[in-house]
Records
---
Amino acid sequence: MTSFAFLAQSGFLKAPPATDQPYAVAGIAWDGATTYRPGARFGPRAVREASHMLCDGIHPHFDVTPVGQLGDAGDLPLPNTSLEAMRAAMAPLVRPLIARHHMAWIGGDHSITLPLLHAYREYLGRPLAVVHFDAHCDTWKDHFGEPSGHGTWVYEAIEAGLVVRECFTQIGIRSAASRAAREYVHDQGGLIFAARDLRGFVGPGQLAPAVDSIRERLALHGHPPVYVSLDIDCLDPAFAPGTGTPEAGGLTTNQLLSLLEDMADLPCVGMDCVEVAPPYDHAELTSLAAASCVWTYLCGQIAAKAGALPAG
Ligand SMILES: [Mn+2]
């Protein structure tokens, strides 16, 4: 087996190396900004491996597969150094991938999202709407005395004008935090669906109003392009134990998949899935949930662009 063939077998959904496919994934295997349990640097390889169980990739809801339209750009060759050096190395690697493919980025800790938003903001020439799934608000103004970390990117993105404040939506928030941090997005004009707000809402019909309110915001604010940032710790630790800062009382995998399915018609430009930390995983629960979410997102985008979204 040539090394090229080996690469093709180890990519996300066994996708071949990224060349000119419309969709691609890339790993960002960096976890130098984790605050509790490190390990998210091993996320990309675990999520890829879990995705191999998805076989031909034909999605049961969307009835499409990314196979044949998807490339895997491998892990970005980043230095295992400071946050600043990593981000500086990341920027020139990200830009050509965004220009060539609709990307799904696999982290890594959540500090990778800020440079990604910078890249999209620059490439698209306009601020983005963000749908942010997370247990944590990530609106802290500093990282234990340092200016930036994995829990500051929301505050930084809003301050830097990378996003449309009114079109910033958080889903699943529940960690300990001061009111100022917890409600920051709301105070800026955005939307928050805390984990508590979604208790008891289990099916697509019950969760659709949440996505409807995101749609209304987008329509009111000029239909900005949507970026989806998915911290796997939005899920309850029962569904995603393999993560650095687990928080009890989270979403179920079914809730998350229902929301992602419902969002397929939004004008999405890219997504990331971060904070999968395989050293704390059990039975690949977390990496399989992450792979399923990335796969569902990609299939939703493919079906939407083909004008073939299922009714309901
Ligand atoms: Mn988080």
---
Amino acid sequence: MTENPIAPPDHPLPQPSEAAVQTRAGYVAIIGKPNVGKSTLLNTILGTKLSIVTPKPQTTRKRVVGIYTDERMQILFLDTPGILEPRYELHRAMMGYVHDSLKDADLIVLVVDVTQHTDPDSALTPDVAEALQRLRKPTIVAFNKIDLLSNTAEVLPLIERYAAAGLFQEFVPLSALKHANVDELLRTIERYLPVSPFLYDPGLLSTQPERFFVAELIREHIFLLYRHEVPYSTEVQIVEFKERQRGKWYIAADIIVERESQKLILIGSGGQRLKMLGQRARRAIEAYLGVPVYLELFVKVRGRWRNNKTMLHSFGY
Ligand SMILES: Nc1nc2c(ncn2[C@@H]2O[C@H](COP(=O)(O)OP(=O)(O)OP(=O)(O)O)[C@@H](O)[C@H]2O)c(=O)[nH]1
Ligand SMILES: [Mg+2]
């Protein structure tokens, strides 16, 4: 084992009278390459589907805040887009969320896919490795997808290699999908979390508005329903969000694509594909909001929006 420069803070055992009040709270950035299971891990910890998940890489594009609270601690998780080498302005904005989250975090969870990232170089890009080195924050490696190993002992050589990199303090093999060993990750996080009162109401699940998650659910179903470049060329903007005391809530969203040909694919012959998308997204939104919803979708073409900073800004990037 290499030297461990960032040891967990010393906590004297709390006196019985203090035990009830000594809570911990802080920010934990969840980072890692695309598709490693960052959003799945967040959802498993929260016990609910908050952050969208698909089998395709680059599903998450913005920062998603998820709040975990139990009797002893409150963790503000920052789920981030997958680490990549930017090819578009959109990618640069996505990497901006990763770097901002690293700065804001008290500690970091690096998620790796044990079937892909058998050494630390493959789990990071040079800029993120440099940021970890510079920031020197406690960093836990979550070795995810151990359910795909024929023998869990196969993770041991990986742990050795990651430990040798000298960038990480803790190593937790787990399966976010199968809920295996996720409690161990929470216990490990707790040891590094600052002593602090809770930062938010314990009942709060996120600091982001419902309309953000509604747009995400529509995007999730675009990722699930369409293939090739369509999901990657698509953005969703909520244009109307009307809550109603009685009757259905009214939600209207623009689906923005880069080319006319993508618009045709989205709509499908006779509008069948768009109708299917609308039905699936509506059901997901109703499950999330717990109310009946009338959802209207409009497809619009905005050429090269992924490389247009002004447009990206207007889309909230
Ligand atoms: N077998 C297995 N699959 C998993 C596990 N965790 C996540 N997955 C799958 O991996 C795929 C990607 O999961 P996500 O949670 O969207 O991954 P992500 O890291 O958030 O991906 P991006 O947002 O694209 O960066 C999905 O198909 C998940 O079901 C796991 O523990 N085991
Ligand atoms: Mg994700």
